[in-house]
């Protein structure tokens, strides 16, 4: 795909088979040109292009006709469904996503959902998604049926993902903070960036990013990770020498997208984590997306190989895009 100028690793779309199930279960509704997603005490609107493929195509082409958007489902994921339904629904959604990618080659790639209530089924679906459906990676939430990706029980899945050599996009929204906090809009503004920070630092401390050479994408500029990298390392030196040094693995295994809202934030991210670990993302089509702003920051601050790495090359290598 030599003509691709931008790879957007953070672009959301809900396949019809999945959104229909969410609507029947009360987790989604359409209203006045928007889709409203609801789970627990949390929720978010998105433009209708989150569920309408024709509109999604138009909006992506309008932003950049030479871009490749890697489509993923955002919250809520399949674990909100009864366990007996989750696997079948997830498989059908991945089948549909694969067909969308096939029919829109060069415009869309796809990240598979996994039935995370069942680790064995998740590992099997991960293999199917890459080997049979030709999808590019995986998306999982920070909270998965009362466990997290750092849970030792997820080892079977991480082993398979390592073997497949494709990244996991770790998206926030499902740590059960809403059970104890009346968050309101602060869920998106503060809680989400905390969630990814918490899960990934724990993965690094406990050695999961050492034991399994998996690659993880942390959206929203890495949450608090770049800013508090030194504090994360302090946990080992000050409290428990048996733990791993987080910064070593957070700089090697984790990639960070450009969904940030000031030039200073992007500059700091690239300086601290390195230009090889930053990938372009937009969070389209949610209200927090500012596609032109994010692209403008990259184009203003960086030239040559650094710009190319952030806009396309890092992601193409990460997802095996040729």
TrEMBL record:
<protein>
    <submittedName>
        <fullName>Putative TIM-barrel fold metal-dependent hydrolase</fullName>
    </submittedName>
</protein>
<dbReference type="InterPro" id="IPR032466">
    <property type="entry name" value="Metal_Hydrolase"/>
</dbReference>
<feature type="domain" description="Amidohydrolase-related">
    <location>
        <begin position="7"/>
        <end position="321"/>
    </location>
</feature>
<keyword id="KW-0378">Hydrolase</keyword>
<dbReference type="InterPro" id="IPR006680">
    <property type="entry name" value="Amidohydro-rel"/>
</dbReference>
<dbReference type="GO" id="GO:0016787">
    <property type="term" value="F:hydrolase activity"/>
</dbReference>
<dbReference type="InterPro" id="IPR032465">
    <property type="entry name" value="ACMSD"/>
</dbReference>
<keyword id="KW-0456">Lyase</keyword>
<dbReference type="GO" id="GO:0016831">
    <property type="term" value="F:carboxy-lyase activity"/>
</dbReference>
<dbReference type="GO" id="GO:0005737">
    <property type="term" value="C:cytoplasm"/>
</dbReference>
<dbReference type="GO" id="GO:0019748">
    <property type="term" value="P:secondary metabolic process"/>
</dbReference>
<dbReference type="Pfam" id="PF04909">
    <property type="entry name" value="Amidohydro_2"/>
</dbReference>
């Amino acid at each position: 795909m030599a003509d691709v100028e931008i790879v957007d690793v953070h672009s959301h779309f809900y396949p019809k088979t999945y959104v229909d199930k969410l609507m029947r279960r009360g987790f989604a509704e359409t209203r006045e040109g928007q889709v409203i997603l609801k789970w627990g005490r949390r929720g978010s609107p998105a433009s209708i292009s989150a569920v309408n493929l024709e509109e999604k195509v138009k909006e992506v082409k309008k932003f950049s006709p030479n871009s490749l958007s890697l489509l993923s489902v955002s919250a809520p994921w399949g674990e909100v469904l009864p366990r007996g339904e989750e696997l079948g629904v997830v498989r059908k959604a991945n089948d549909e996503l694969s067909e969308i990618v096939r029919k829109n080659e060069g415009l869309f790639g796809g990240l598979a959902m996994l039935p995370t209530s069942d680790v064995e089924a998740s590992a099997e679906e991960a293999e199917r998604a890459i080997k049979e459906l030709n999808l590019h990676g995986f998306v999982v939430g920070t909270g998965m049926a009362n466990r997290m990706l750092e849970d030792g029980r997820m080892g079977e899945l991480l082993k398979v993902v390592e073997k497949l050599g494709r990244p996991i996009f770790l998206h926030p929204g499902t740590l059960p903070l809403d059970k104890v906090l009346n968050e309101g809009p602060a869920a998106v503004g503060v809680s989400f960036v905390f969630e990814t920070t918490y899960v990934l630092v724990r993965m690094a401390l406990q050695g999961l990013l050492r034991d399994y050479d998996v690659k993880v994408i942390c959206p929203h500029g890495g949450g608090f990770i770049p800013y508090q990298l030194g504090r994360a390392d302090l946990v080992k030196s000050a409290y428990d020498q048996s733990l791993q040094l987080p910064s070593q693995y957070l700089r090697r295994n984790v990639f960070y997208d450009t969904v940030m809202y000031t030039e200073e934030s992007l500059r700091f991210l690239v300086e601290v984590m390195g230009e090889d670990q930053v990938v372009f993302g937009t969070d389209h089509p949610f209200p927090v997306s500012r596609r032109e702003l994010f692209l403008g920051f990259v184009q203003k601050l960086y030239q040559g190989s650094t710009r190319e790495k952030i806009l396309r090359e890092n992601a193409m290598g990460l997802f095996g895009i040729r």
